[in-house]
Amino acid sequence: MAGIGALALVLSACVSSVLEVDSKATQPIPTALMAEMSRKSMSPSAPILIRIFKQESELEIWKRDRSGQFALLKVYPMCRWSGKLGPKKQDGDRQAPEGFYHVNAGMLNPNSQYYLSFNFGYPNRLEAALGYTGDALMVHGACSSSGCYALTDEGVAEIYAIAREALQGGQIAFQVQAFPFRMTPQNLAKNRNDPNFAFWTDLKRGNDVFEVSRQQPKVSYCSGRYVFDTEFQGGEPRDPLAACPPSANSAEPVVAGRTETDLAAAEQLLANGAAFSAHAYADGGMHPTFRKLLERVGKKALARRTSLTSVPISRPDAALADPHSPQEQE
User: Fold this and answer.
1) Mean pLDDT lowest for which of 97-111, 141-155, 252-266, 297-311?
2) CA 268, CA 265: separation in Å to the nearest integer?
3) Where is this region: Disordered (predicted)?
4) Coil, strand, or helix at residue 26?
5) How far apart are CA 161 and CA 31, in angstroms?
């Protein structure tokens, strides 16, 4: 026992280990959500995919149905994220990551100090090659963020249970797609002059692969960027910064057409003066449904809130309320 008591616990970014594991990590998927899966022809053990949208402060769980395609299961409002729009580049910048990640069973953390969590796997191979630093970037509970995406405790408990069942059902790893905003022409136009726009254009191509095909895009790295659904002559590129080798397949015309059409529509909005200015983030944001609750019940009570684990599914082109919240010291 003395040896256990002397054990040093490591605190890094959004995660901390504890010595005791309670039943929170083994909670079943709620009955209502199981019924929704059944209604949508989904099995609890079927593969999942997660999509995150910073500006809208929403996290989506997608699940493969009997047709073999991914369908939307549920949308969760995010209680807190930190930083601003744009990728995470260095430890301590408070930026929540943007990009494509893959989460295996070993990255689920039942002992998180923030109720439950899973690790993104930041930095991925591309980010590591670019020299980006930081670790233990999470999706977790507690409604508090220092470079992570935070939900309520009940919200992350549902997501954790869904992910656990999919991984136990045979999915080796589930994909997490983290975007600065929904990739609409309006949002692209609004952020056209941002220095991250070229990076976001790459992310949009992955977004469009999924939205057109409803299949998980294959992710590759070369020429210092993401490349999607591409087979390369000679095999997968080993150096993310080296020039992309010749491809052995052609781009799906429907996907490429979707991307170019949206980018052209964004340029037209700019030309017509119809694009609104981008919001300036002091430090992250919060889903609009949580802001008034924060003022009324306080941070600790909000983290445990059980009545706001889902929000109505918004149309991608819907005008959403400003997601910015005042700066919060953690």
Assistant:
1) 297-311
2) 5
3) 305-330
4) helix
5) 12
Residue type, 12: S
Question: Does 287 participate in catalysis according to the annotation?
Answer: no
pLDDT tens, residue by residue, 203-246 = 999 999 999 999 999 999 999 999 999 999 999 999 999 999 99
Tell me the three state secondary structure of residue 135.
coil
Which uninterrupted H or E stretch holds 209?
Answer: helix 197-213
Distance CA 240, CA 252 (A): 23
Q: 292 by DSSP, 3-state: which?
A: helix
Distance between CA 266 and CA 274 in Å, rounded? 10
The C-alpha atoms of residue 113 and residue 18 are separated, in whole angstroms, by 7
E strand or H helix at 62, and its extent?
Answer: strand 58-64
Residue 327 tokens, joined: 């700066």
Catalytic position from the list 140, 143, 222, 287: 140
What residue spans define the domains of the chain?
A: 17-303
Q: What is this structure's pTM?
A: 0.85
Residue 107, pLDDT above cutoff 50: yes
The CA–CA distances, whole Å, from 173 to 43, 48, 85, 115, 122 equal 17, 9, 26, 22, 14
> Which residue in 79, 148, 222, 287 is the catalytic one?
148
148 is known as an active-site residue = yes
